[in-house]
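Researcher: Let's do a round of design. I'm pasting the C-alpha cells now; please hold your answer until I've finished.
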C-alpha cells in the first residue's frame, strides 16, 4: 500500500517521462527547444520556424520552411458548419470556452486528421493554422467588425493580429507578437502539455488531447494568469499605489499573478525578453504606463516575497498596447502553445505508455453497508463533502 507520506503533491519533481522537445534549467533560468536557446530563437527565428523545429526536431531549410508556411496559410479556413455555429454564439461567450469547444467540434468535420499516430502531424498543422481564425471570427462578430478574410499573404503572427484587430498590424507589432508566440510555444511538462500527453497516452486522438490542453491552460494558475495581471494593474492604477495594493493582497494570503514558477528558481528567461518588448512597444506607442507599473510591481513583490516574474507578467502589457482585449490573452497563448502540445502528443504516440499514476488511499476501509431506510443525514464515517441542504 502506498503511504500518504510518499505523495509528491502536484507531482512536483516527479520525472514522468523522457522527452527531446524542451529543456528547462530552473536554477540557471535557461530554456531550450530541441537544443536551441530560447533567447537565440526569439532574436533570430519566427513562429513558423519554431513550430517546424518542435514538430520535426530540427531547423528547416528555406524550402522546408516555405512549404510549411504555405501549408499553414492554406489550412486557415473553418468548415462552414463550424463557422455558422460560431455565428450563433452570444458576445458574452468566454473565448477560452469557445476555443475548447471549437477544437472538439472541428474533429467532427475532420475524421481523417483525428487518427492517432505519426500521421497526426497533419492535424497538428491544421490546429495551429485554424485557432486564430476561430478567435478572429468570434471577436469580429462580437465587436461588429468586418468579416475575416484568409489573407494567405500574411505570416502566422500578422494573420493573428489582423484577425483580432481588424486592421493592418505594423512591422513592430508583428515582430513583437512573433516573439511572444515563439516564447509561448512550448514549456516541457507544464500542466496543459501534461494533460495533452495523458489524453494521448490512452491512444486517444490529437483533437481530444488539444481539447484537454485548452481546458487546462484556461486556469488562472496557468495560462489564465496574464489576464489577471491586467486586472491587477487596473486595480493599482498608479505607481504610488503598487506598494499598498501588493501588501494588502499578501496580507490576505492572495497570490500575485505573473510571479512564481514551479520550475524556475530565478527569473523566467521568457519574462526577461518580454520585459524588453513591453518597453519597446510602449515607447513606440508613447505609452509606458503599464510597463512602469510592472517594473514597480516586480520590485515590491521581490522585496516582500522573494518571487521572480514569470512569462505571464509582461505578455498582457504588450497585447494591451496593440488594442487586444484581456479575454483574448490566454487564447493567444493557446494559439502558440498548440505547436508544443501537438509536438508532445506526436512524441507520446512515438513511445506510447499509458500514463496512470497511483494515489495514496486515505479514506476508511471495511465499512458496513447500511440500508437506506436506516441511514441518518448527519452521521457518516468520514467527513466527506457537505451534502446539498
Ligand atoms: N504570489 C504570492 N505568493 C506566491 C506566489 C505568488 N504569485 N507564487 C507562490 N507563492 C507562495 C505560495 O503562497 C507558497 O507560500 P507558502 O509556502 O507560504 O504557502 C509558496 O510561494 C509556494 O507556492 P506553491 O503554490 O506551492 O508553489 P508552486 O510551485 O505550486 O507554484 C505557481 C507555482 C502555481 C505558478 C505559483 O507561483 C502561482 O500561483 N503563481 C501565480 C499564478 C501565475 O502567475 N501563473 C502562471 C505561471 S506560468 C504559466 O503557467 C504559463
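Researcher: That's everything. Go ahead.
Model: Designed sequence:
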Amino acid at each position: 500500500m502506498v503511504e500518504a507520506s510518499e505523495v509528491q503533491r502536484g507531482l512536483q519533481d516527479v520525472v514522468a517521462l523522457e522527452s527531446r522537445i524542451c529543456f528547462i534549467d530552473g536554477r540557471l533560468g535557461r530554456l531550450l527547444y530541441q537544443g536551441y536557446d530560447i533567447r537565440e530563437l526569439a532574436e533570430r527565428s519566427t513562429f513558423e520556424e519554431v513550430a517546424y523545429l518542435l514538430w520535426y526536431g530540427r531547423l528547416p531549410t528555406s524550402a522546408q520552411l516555405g512549404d510549411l508556411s504555405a501549408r499553414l496559410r492554406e489550412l486557415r479556413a473553418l468548415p462552414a458548419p463550424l463557422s455558422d455555429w460560431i455565428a450563433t454564439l452570444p458576445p458574452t461567450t468566454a473565448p477560452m470556452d469557445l476555443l475548447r469547444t471549437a477544437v472538439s467540434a472541428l474533429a467532427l468535420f475532420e475524421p481523417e486528421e483525428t487518427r492517432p499516430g505519426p500521421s497526426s502531424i497533419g492535424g497538428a498543422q491544421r490546429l495551429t493554422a485554424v485557432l486564430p481564425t476561430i478567435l478572429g471570427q468570434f471577436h469580429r462578430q462580437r465587436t461588429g467588425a468586418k468579416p475575416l478574410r484568409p489573407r494567405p499573404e500574411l505570416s502566422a503572427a500578422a494573420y493573428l493580429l489582423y484577425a483580432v484587430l481588424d486592421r493592418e498590424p505594423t512591422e513592430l507589432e508583428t515582430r513583437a507578437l512573433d516573439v511572444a508566440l515563439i516564447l509561448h510555444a512550448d514549456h516541457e511538462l507544464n500542466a496543459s502539455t501534461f494533460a495533452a500527453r495523458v489524453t494521448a497516452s490512452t491512444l486517444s486522438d490529437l483533437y481530444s488531447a488539444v481539447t484537454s490542453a485548452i481546458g487546462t491552460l484556461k486556469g488562472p494558475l496557468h495560462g489564465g494568469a496574464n489576464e489577471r495581471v491586467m486586472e491587477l494593474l487596473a486595480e493599482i492604477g498608479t505607481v504610488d499605489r503598487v506598494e499598498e495594493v501588493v501588501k494588502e493582497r499578501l496580507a490576505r494570503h492572495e497570490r500575485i499573478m505573473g510571479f512564481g514558477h514551479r520550475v524556475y528558481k530565478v527569473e523566467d528567461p521568457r519574462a526577461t525578453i518580454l520585459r524588453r518588448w513591453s518597453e519597446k512597444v510602449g515607447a513606440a506607442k508613447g505609452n509606458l504606463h503599464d510597463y512602469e507599473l510592472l517594473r514597480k510591481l516586480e520590485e515590491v513583490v521581490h522585496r516582500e516575497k522573494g518571487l521572480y516574474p514569470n512569462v505571464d507578467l509582461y505578455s498582457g502589457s504588450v497585447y494591451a498596447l496593440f488594442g487586444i482585449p484581456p479575454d483574448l490573452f490566454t487564447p493567444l497563448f493557446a494559439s502558440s502553445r498548440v505547436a508544443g502540445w501537438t509536438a508532445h502528443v506526436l512524441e507520446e504516440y512515438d513511445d506510447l505508455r499509458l500514463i496512470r499514476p497511483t494515489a495514496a488511499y486515505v479514506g476508511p476501509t471495511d465499512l458496513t453497508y447500511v440500508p437506506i431506510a436506516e441511514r441518518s443525514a448527519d452521521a457518516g464515517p468520514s467527513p466527506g463533502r457537505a451534502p446539498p441542504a
